[in-house]
Design a protein that fits this description.
Subunit structure: Component of the dolichol-phosphate mannose (DPM) synthase complex.
Distance between the termini: 32 Å
CATH class of one domain: Alpha Beta
Number of strands: 9
Low-confidence stretches: none
Helix content: 40-55%
Strand content: 15-25%
Pathway: Protein modification; protein glycosylation
InterPro entries: DPM1-like (IPR039528), Glyco_trans_2-like (IPR001173), Nucleotide-diphossugar_trans (IPR029044)
Shape: globular
Organism: Hibiscus syriacus (Rose of Sharon)
Catalytic activity: a di-trans,poly-cis-dolichyl phosphate + GDP-alpha-D-mannose = a di-trans,poly-cis-dolichyl beta-D-mannosyl phosphate + GDP
Strand order of the largest sheet: 3-2-1-4-7-5-8
Radius of gyration: 17 Å
Length: 239
C-alpha cells in the first residue's frame, strides 16, 4: 500500500505541556512533509495554558490539521486515547507523548516499516540494537529494564519494549485492542501490546532513543510502579 493513499491521525495527550506542544507540532510537520496527517490534541484541562498554545497553532497550521479535543480534567492516558480515537479521520493512528521524549523524526521509519511488512502495529523500542534511553539516571534505567524483563518472563508478549507509548496502529486494530483493555495509567500501554499479541496481530518494532522530557516534570512515581506490578499480575491471570 502506498503511503500517499493513507492518512495518519496522531493522537497527542497533554497535561501541562505548554512549553513542549509547539515544538512537537513543528517537528511533526517537519518530518512528515509528504504525508497526509492530522494531529489530535487531547488536553486534560491543563492549568498552564496548553490549550491557548494549541489554539494559536490551529491559526498557524489550520484547524483541519490540528484538532483540539479537550476534556474537563485529568482522566488518564487510556481514556485520552479512547477520546481521541472518536475524532480521527485517518486509517492509521499514531500515539505519542507530547513531552519530546518521542522524537517525530522516527515517524517516517514507523510508516516505512508498516508499508514494507503490512504490520497491524509498529512500536518503538528502546531495547534492541539502535535503540536506547537518554537523560535517565542509572536507577531509572534499571527500573525500566527490570520491569520489561519481568514482564517478558511472565507474559511472553513477543515484543521487546512493553511499556513504550510510541506506536503506529491500523485504526481498526487500535479500536479492537483498546476496547478489550481495562487498565489505567502507566500499565495501559503494556496491556495494549499484550492484548494485541494474544489476538494474533502482526507487530513490528523500530529502534528509538527515548529522551527524558525537556521541559516540565516526569509523571512517573512510586504509585505508578505499584500500579505496574498490579497490572502485571492481572495480565498473567487474564491473558
Amino acid at each position: 500500500m502506498d503511503a500517499a493513499k493513507n492518512k495518519y491521525s496522531i493522537i497527542v495527550p497533554t497535561y501541562n505541556e505548554r512549553l513542549n506542544i509547539a515544538l512537537i507540532v513543528y517537528l511533526i510537520f517537519k518530518h512528515l512533509r509528504d504525508v497526509d496527517f492530522e494531529i489530535i490534541v487531547v488536553d486534560d484541562g491543563s492549568p498552564d495554558g496548553t490549550q491557548e498554545v494549541v489554539k494559536h497553532l490551529q491559526r498557524l497550521y489550520g484547524e483541519d490539521r490540528i484538532l483540539l479535543r479537550p476534556r474537563a480534567k485529568k482522566l488518564g492516558l487510556g481514556t485520552a486515547y479512547i477520546h481521541g480515537l472518536k475524532h480521527v479521520s485517518g486509517n492509521f493512528v499514531v500515539i505519542m507523548d507530547a513531552d519530546l521524549s518521542h522524537h517525530p523524526k522516527y515517524l517516517p521509519s514507523f510508516i516505512k516499516k508498516q508499508l514494507e511488512t503490512g504490520a497491524s502495529i509498529v512500536t518503538g523500542t528502546r531495547y534492541v540494537t539502535g535503540g536506547g534511553v537518554h537523560g535517565w539516571n542509572l536507577m531509572r534505567k534499571l527500573t525500566s529494564r527490570g520491569a520489561n524483563v519481568l514482564a517478558q518472563t511472565l507474559l511472553w508478549p513477543g515484543v521487546s519494549d512493553l511499556t513504550g507509548s510510541f506506536r503506529l496502529y491500523k485504526k481498526s486494530v487500535l479500536e479492537d485492542v483498546i476496547s478489550s483493555c481495562v487498565s489505567k495509567g502507566y500499565v495501559f500501554q503494556m496491556e495494549m501490546i499484550v492484548r494485541a499479541s494474544r489476538k494474533g496481530y502482526h507487530i513490528e518494532e523500530v529502534p528509538i532513543t527515548f529522551v527524558d522530557r525537556v521541559f516540565g516534570s516526569s509523571k512517573l512515581g512510586g504509585s505508578e510502579i505499584v500500579e505496574y506490578l498490579k497490572g502485571l499480575i492481572y495480565l498473567m491471570i487474564t491473558t
